[in-house]
Amino acid sequence: MRIIKKIINFKTKTFSVVMLLEANSDDAWNIYNLLSPGDLIYGTCHRKIAKESLTGLVKNERKKMNLLLKVEKFDYDPDTDLIRVLGINSKESPYIGLGAH
Q1: Is-contact 59 35, C-beta < 8 A?
Q2: Would you say 33 and 49 are in contact if contact means Cβ atoms under 8 Å apart?
Q3: Domains within the chain, CATH numbers bracketed
Q4: 29: nearest Cα among 77, 72, 70, 71
Q5: Which residue has better confidence, 19 or 23?
Q6: Residue 50: what pLDDT?
Q7: How many CA atoms lie within 13 Å of 2's alpha carbon, on the beta-carbon side?
Q8: Is the dihedral of CA 15, 35, 19, 101 positive or negative?
Q9: What is the pLDDT of residues 30-85, one digit of tens each?
Q10: Degrees, nearest 5: CA angle 37-39-40
């Protein structure tokens, strides 16, 4: 794990950290231990978007988008070394509304 940037705001008593995680390490486990419900996570995900044409045909596309989630629940899978995060979208985008899960 490498810390790229730290931002500390003493007036609002908040901080944010930008980290780069390595593929083959215990970084996911360490992040899992740092997370708590109510935290905000910014990340990139891929989502399948269905578009319907005027003729009624449905075309599925995979879109890459950036999300800001307010963490409600999270889980760590040691077999695949992944963290699953369930939360509410806190930043509106064209494909996902504000407050969507």
Answers
A1: no
A2: no
A3: 2-89 (2.30.30)
A4: 77
A5: 19
A6: 83
A7: 4
A8: negative
A9: 888 888 999 888 888 888 888 887 787 888 889 898 888 999 999 988 888 888 88
A10: 135
DSSP state of 31: H
φ, ψ of residue 89 to 5 degrees: the values are -70, 125
CA distance 20 to 17: 10
- Which class for 68: exposed (0-12), middle (13-18), buried (19 or more C-beta within 10 A)? middle
Whole-number pLDDT of residue 73: 93
Q: Which two tokens stand for residue 37?
A: 């419900």
If residue 87 lies in a helix (H) or strand (E), which one and from where to where? strand 82-89
Q: What is the CA radius of gyration of the chain?
A: 17
Work out whether strand 40-52 and strand 58-77 pair parallel, antiparallel, or are unpaired: antiparallel
